[in-house]
Amino acid sequence: MKAEGVAYAKINLFLDVVGRRGDGYHLIDGVMQSVEMGDVVRVTLTPGGEGISLRVEGDDSVPTDSTNLAWRAAERFLEKAGLRAGVELELEKRIPAAGGLAGGSSDAACVLRLLNGLAGENTLSQESLSELAAGLGADLSFCLESPNGAMRTEGIGEVLTPVPALPDCAILIANDGEGVSTPWAYRLVDEVTREYLLEHREQERRIKRMLDALKSGSFEEICAACRNTFEAVIMPVRPKVRALRKRMWRAGAGTALMSGSGPSVFGLFADREAADRLCEALKREGVKAFVTRPRRNEN
After folding, report:
1. Could you give the domains of the chain?
2. Per-residue pLDDT tens over the stretch 74-115
């Protein structure tokens, strides 16, 4: 039995780190938006078979063993569903790895959706599937629940609230640096944050501004409300991030900022041609770049 799907990338329109739990996990408040670009995921389920295999095209840096999140998602699904079967996974990578775009998380979420569609009488409930996703990683909850729009993300990323999607625009995404380890990025944030609770009131004001902007549908207001806590700690150690932001601003972006813990940078453009011109210039310089658009909740 075979199934195919697209694992869509995400960008963080807003991302604040608001606290840290006793177990070490960080609490966030933000808005994630899925975009019309993603990896192609293919799953073959063989009832009665054994083992998991994974083949990756398009990015030699992506592991093809049990360290890959898509592999672990398949493994956990088989366990939770009580299913004895072999699984073959194929990924056509288009999302830059370790780039702050949830490529690995989106692949894993897509694997869960596809396997659940093939599981027959072993199909998991949506609640069980969501619990499985949350146990695999923070971004998986969004990637599983909202492949077609935007969500406010709270807790460690598992508390989701639908919000209006970004209005249609051109989104230029570029990656010109080595990957960033998310745990390392969080450690940097901890080092510069004396007390999360002291910043709570200001953080509530910032997220309200973003939510109000999304509700209004104003491209300009949304651009003005965008924010990413990680920029303050990542840009000093990844200077190419700052350089990409400046180039996007100068090319006419309404805003430009890092996605997730980076190093990918995105710019929101009202002018598609301006985004395309800069994208082509960046590609000629060897920078990974592409232009896409936001996925909408009604799609």
Report:
1. 2-163 (3.30.230.10), 170-292 (3.30.70.890)
2. 999 999 999 999 999 999 999 988 788 999 999 999 999 999
